[in-house]
């Protein structure tokens, strides 16, 4: 049996890969956001030097910066998903999206471990699992280098 048109297998495979990249971006966005939410609650409760960790201006600014990055990733994800639903060609956008969101989530979860201190690495808290789960997102459906190659070809030719 033949699925689809003869000779179009590569086109179909790439189309599914691009669609999958949106799903992976959404997954990584969810993991990064959940990690930040958990860490935010932790630093608002945990005290150091007689003050909540959250009460230190430098900490607030770092967390705010990561929240901005996650919001940008969320908007980007929605935009590429909308383009896919409209039938637009999303090859470049999907590669950029996966690259950006996976790296953003990896950075956010890494910062969350730092902000929690030593307990961030323990299995007593979910932060270390979020960090490990996000790492795989930078590998499957295209490693960062493969994505960068796709992006470079799409913006500058072969």
Q: Please trace the helix and strand order, writing H or E for each element.
A: HEEHHHH
**Poorly predicted ranges:** none
Radius of gyration: 19 Å
What is the number of helical segments per DSSP (H or I, 4+ residues)?
5
Total strands: 2
- Describe the global form: elongated
Q: Structural class per helix/strand content?
A: mainly alpha
In whole angstroms, the N-to-C terminal distance is 35 Å
Our estimate of the beta-strand percent is under 5%
**Largest beta-sheet details:** 2 strands, antiparallel
Mean pLDDT: 93
What fraction, in percent, of the residue positions are helical? over 70%
Q: Biggest sheet, strands in spatial order?
A: 1-2
Give the arrangement of secondary structure elements.
Blueprint: H1 9-45, E1 47-48, E2 51-52, H2 57-85, H3 91-116, H4 127-137, H5 144-156
Antiparallel strand pairs: 1-2
Describe the fold and architecture.
The chain is mostly helical and 158 residues long. It has helices spanning 9-45, 57-85, 91-116, 127-137, 144-156, and strands at 47-48, 51-52. A two-stranded antiparallel ribbon has the order 1-2. A hairpin with a 2-residue loop joins strand 1 (47-48) and strand 2 (51-52). The model has no long low-confidence stretch (mean pLDDT 93).
């Amino acid at each position: 049996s033949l699925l689809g048109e003869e000779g179009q297998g590569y086109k179909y495979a790439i189309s599914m890969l691009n669609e999958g990249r949106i799903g992976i971006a959404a997954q990584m966005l969810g993991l990064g956001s959940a990690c930040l939410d958990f860490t935010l609650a932790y630093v608002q409760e945990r005290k150091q030097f007689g003050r909540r960790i959250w009460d230190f201006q430098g900490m607030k600014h770092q967390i705010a910066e990561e929240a901005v990055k996650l919001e940008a990733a969320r908007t980007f994800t929605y935009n590429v998903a909308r383009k896919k639903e409209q039938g637009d060609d999303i090859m470049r956008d999907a590669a950029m999206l996966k690259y950006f969101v996976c790296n953003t989530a990896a950075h956010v979860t890494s910062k969350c471990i730092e902000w929690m201190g030593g307990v961030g690495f323990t299995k007593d808290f979910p932060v270390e699992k979020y960090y490990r789960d996000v790492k795989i997102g930078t590998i499957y459906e295209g490693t960062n280098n493969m994505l960068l190659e796709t992006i470079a070809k799409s913006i500058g030719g072969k």
